[in-house]
Amino acid sequence: MLKGLFAKKKENGLDKNKLNIKDLDPLNIPKHVAIIMDGNGRWAKQKGLPRIAGHREGMKTIREVARVANEVGIKILTLYAFSTENWKRPQDEVKFLMDLPQEFLRKELDELIEQNVQVKMMGFDQQLPEHTLNAVHEAVEKTKQNTGLILNFALNYGSRYEIIHAIRNIVDDVLAGNISKDEIDEKLMNQYLLTKSYPDPDLLIRTSGELRISNFLLWQIAYTELWYTDEFWPEFNKQSLLQAIYEYQQRSRRFGSL
Length: 258
Ligand code: IPE
Ligand code: IPE
Ligand code: MG
Description:
Layout: H1 2-11, E1 32-36, H2 40-46, H3 51-72, E2 76-83, H4 91-114, E3 118-122, H5 130-143, E4 150-157, H6 159-175, H7 186-192, E5 203-206, E6 225-228, H8 238-250
Parallel strand pairs: 1-2, 1-5, 2-4, 3-4, 5-6
Helix pairs in contact: 2-3, 3-4, 4-5
This protein binds 3-methylbut-3-enyl trihydrogen diphosphate (2 copies) and magnesium ion.
């Protein structure tokens, strides 16, 4: 009922580029938002700067988006920061990207703590340099008592490997007699994925105009609403996130039903 009234109010001339948090339906805020933060390199190139300048600028966007997500009442914000395929990039760029978490957290951790944010990491530890892992683990440790937004960094994350990894662990558990083959269902599979403590994303955002998934959360986005923008990640801002959520709220999610 409340939700219906709210939707009605919305139809009367709302400027989509000047949204406020109060223009959103508080009863229909996506719980889990995932973002493919893309376009840092192109943003830099367009300004005649080296690609790494784009990555540095992109950190500012992370700060703003986390703040707004928290304010709006999103529970989980999963950010694709480095894929299992990104190791193919030039060594200098990879090194810079591996230094970024430390730099970001050195600057932002106090404020994240103050904002009651819980920092988490989702990805494969193996290839990550020690200083990168240490910085992230410290942030996770220092924010684990917090109860606000879960800021989940997908770092050295790749969905195909995540699924392979899950299958291997399931097979191990079947062979060890911990579970039987017949118990393997969607619910069990979810428990073996890196997202096991989170619900599936409600909304997936990709910046920079690319319309692909790039090995992100393949299993989890079966019924996720997709939204994209031509803005490069360093240009994405509060207004962009509010617009994405606003448009999400206009959609009808049917999950195969009527
Ligand atoms: C996204 O920006 C950041 C990472 C993938 C680490 P890109 O670095 O992919 O920037 P473009 O897509 O080359 O512009
Ligand atoms: C996806 O962006 C990975 C991250 C945002 C971390 P990419 O820039 O690596 O994706 P492709 O290569 O354009 O598919
Ligand atoms: Mg890219």
